[in-house]
Every structure is written in C-alpha cells, then in structure tokens.
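User: Here's a chain of 330 residues. Predict its fold as tokens.
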Amino acid sequence: MSRASILVTGGAGYIGSHTVLQLRAQGEQVVVLDDLSTGFRQAVLDTPLVVGKVGDRDLVRETLRVHAVDTVLHFAAHTIVPESVSNPLKYYGNNTCSTRTLLECCVESDVRNFVFSSTAAVYGIPPEEFAAESSPTAPINAYGTSKLMSEWMLRDVAAASSLRYVALRYFNVAGSDSGGRIGQATRKATLLVKVACEAAVGKRPHVSIYGTDYATPDGTGIRDYIHVEDLASAHLDALTYLRRGGNPVVLNVGYGHGYSVREVLQSVERVAGHRLNIREEPRRPGDPPSLVARADRIRSELGWRPRLDNLDTIVATALNWEQRLAREPW
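Assistant: Prediction complete.
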C-alpha cells in the first residue's frame, strides 16, 4: 500500500469509534482492530475492521504490515473500576500485558507515533480536588494501576527506540455523536450519564447513587465530565503534535471543573423533562470522592480547544442516542 494507515485498537468501542469518525472526516486512512467483546461492528460504519485481540502477536504484526501502519491509537482496554478490584488479573492481563505485546510489534514494525488511552484513575485519591500531570500517581484500583504500568512501558520504549507518544489521561467521558450516528451501546454500562439516560428512557427501573456521605458539598462524588467528541478531538490534536515532531508527553484531558452525581442526575431530569427513580446505595470500592482535571497543559501543548463544555449539552446528546437505541437496538 502506498499510503500509511492509522491503526485504532478498540476502535469499535465507545471512545475509539468517535475518534475513528473524526479521523475519517479528515481524510485519514484508518483500520480498526477490535475483538468486539464490548465494541460493535455498527460503530465503525464502513471503516476496515480486523476482528481479534491486541494481545495476539501474529495478528497484530500482520495487520501492521498489510496496512502499512505508521501510527497507532490504542484504546482497547477493560475499564470497569469495581470489576478491576474484584478481578485484578483480568485487567493486568488485558490492559498491561496486551499493551506490552502491541508495543513490541510496533517497535518491530517501525511504528513512529503512538497515542495512548490512559486514565485519571492513575492519580487515585489526590490530596486536593484537582489533579495535574505533576500530581503523585497512586492508583487505588487495578484499572488505574494497569494503565500506569502501560505509561511506564511507553516511557521506556520511547527512550530506547524511535517511537514517540502522547498519553492522554481521561477524566469522565460522556455524551454521544452530535449527529446521532454512533454512541455508547455498551451492555450493562456503568458510566453515570449513560446509566441515567437509560433510566430516563425506561431501559432501567432506577438509577443508583453510590455513596452519599463523601466530603463534598452534597455528599456525592464529583467528577470532571468531558464530551466524547471533545475527547476524540484531543486524539487528533495529539496526532498532529507527533507528526510535527513533538516529544513524548503525558497530558490530562478534562474541562477543569466538576459536577456531583446529584447535579448530573438533575441535568438528566431537566433535559428529559421528568423525574428519575433514584436510589441511594453504599459506596463502591475504588471510587475517589472527587477527581477534577488541571487541564491547562493540553491547551498549550496541543492547542486543544473543547467545543461542548456544558453539562446539559453532554446529557442532551447522550439522551438523544438512548432514544435512538430504544427505537433501533444495536
């Protein structure tokens, strides 16, 4: 093939598919690798899809070769925090060991640019409400630890090879494609906005608040919620940065302000136009009380400019998608 491609692992999943959509809109040549354990064929639209696991060394090598890949965007991972507490080896196996295999194949194939989907969970419980890239990394669950270990591998591989990378530490992603083409269709989803919107359209009998006794203004956890389209655009900005010769960097992706669980549920009720059936439950293991981004560096380093920094806007796109799924299930 005469033109280099971008490999997007986990590109049939929630965040990956939105990023693929934006890459294709910019005329990039993209191939998706996804085992479809949580992703959906429909989400990639007409993008070439290779079905398989990131930890399958032979499959990854062949995909990199056949598609002449010079850039990898790595999303594929398990992401459920409570599950990572109860089944840590599942997370170290998939998130860390498979990333090691992927990196080995990338070095062998002379892949130059690598954008990694990391997480704010690497910070654990920050000493302050806000977490900056310079904040101590002290994850309190296997999910965060598995991602931090992958960041360490990236750092060391970049020091020993020509691979350059951007690691993006996500805060809480929410919302769906503004055009209503794709969205989060994960079975048994745990992300708050998704769960609340499912309750709003009648897919769930209720929505639970896990913990009402945190040291926050209303007793519920506070998070920095970022629209999935703004998060996807950060990956395109990271790619532009690397193509221009940018040095390896780790950056937060968030809006820099947070909303409590109660505030999110109030937004869903406001946008949906009716009340939710809300239950109060005990805290879940592995959940910090508050986690909000210091996200100045991504603006200065990558020139990232979010467009959808409004809670009701985030909720409206998520609710629109749930209404579509209620009519046309995936």
